[in-house]
Design goal:
By secondary structure, the protein is an alpha+beta fold. It is built from 8 helices and 4 strands; from the N terminus they run ααβααβαβαβαα. The longest helix is centred in the first third of the chain and has 19 residues, at about 55-70. The relative contact order is 0.23. It binds flavin mononucleotide.
Length: about 210
């Protein structure tokens, strides 16, 4: 697959995990792609916690579903009905999970390029996540980003020290297939925005409608 195929084939996967094993060499290739990401001041502020333990995953899954209920309680009418039909995680069905963390203190105190924009640290960790996601897709593995959790709760579950933020819980593993349309679009939650609306020339232009 060339890069553009991988970019367009990548999907957020929830329902298609098979639970089949992921060879260690494959996981290593995927994590080294993540670790090759660019980072502000070359700070490399990420870490990867590979979670295989069934009890940890069960407890996380339970927490996610409490948070799902919290979000569902903010919806009514058609949105509530739509959301009820949407699967938001494959924590139990996927082969393993990778929790990506962010350490804002790494490489400090003088992180080159971060003095004016503190968030560039977090951007760097997100780029590692995107590299992981694309590498997994190239390997034929699905990834599902789960963000229905409270950071302190997850930090406590995995023994993540103070000051280090869990940025993503990523479900990972072989899949039956990749859907061609994002789940949220298929369920009518939200549709793809035309590229032309996202491109501006020289100055910001307001949408015409
Ligand atoms: C920061 C972030 C958090 C996300 N959290 C969740 C989540 O908790 N549950 C979920 O089902 N999908 C989650 N997603 C996946 C998005 O819903 C998905 O990327 C989007 O609908 C587009 O679909 P696609 O990734 O298949 O193109 C998350 C994605 C991002 C980037």
């Amino acid at each position: 697959m060339d890069l553009y195929d991988v970019v367009h084939r990548r999907r957020d996967v929830r329902a298609q995990f098979t639970g089949a094993p992921v060879p260690e060499e494959t996981l290593h290739r995927v994590l080294s792609a993540a670790h090759a990401a660019p980072s502000v001041g070359y700070s490399q502020p990420w870490d990867f916690v590979v979670v295989r333990d069934a009890e940890l995953r069960r407890r996380f899954h339970e927490h996610v579903h409490t948070e799902r209920d919290t979000f569902a309680a903010t919806l009514d009418g058609e949105a509530a009905e739509r959301f009820a039909r949407i699967k938001i995680d494959g924590v139990l069905e996927s082969t393993l999970s990778v929790v990506v963390t962010h350490d804002q203190a790494r490489g400090g105190p003088a992180v080159l390029g971060r003095h004016a924009i503190a968030d560039t640290g977090l951007y760097s960790t997100c780029l590692a996540i995107q590299n992981l996601w694309l590498a997994a897709t190239a390997e034929g593995l699905g990834v599902g980003w789960v963000s229905f959790y409270r950071e302190p709760w997850l930090a406590e579950l995995l023994g993540i020290p103070d000051g280090i933020r869990p940025v993503a819980w990523l479900c990972l593993g072989p899949v039956t297939h990749f859907e061609s349309v994002p789940d949220l679009a298929r369920h009518g939650w939200r549709q793809k925005r035309p590229l032309a609306e996202a491109i501006h020339h020289d100055r910001w232009t307001a949408p015409t409608h």
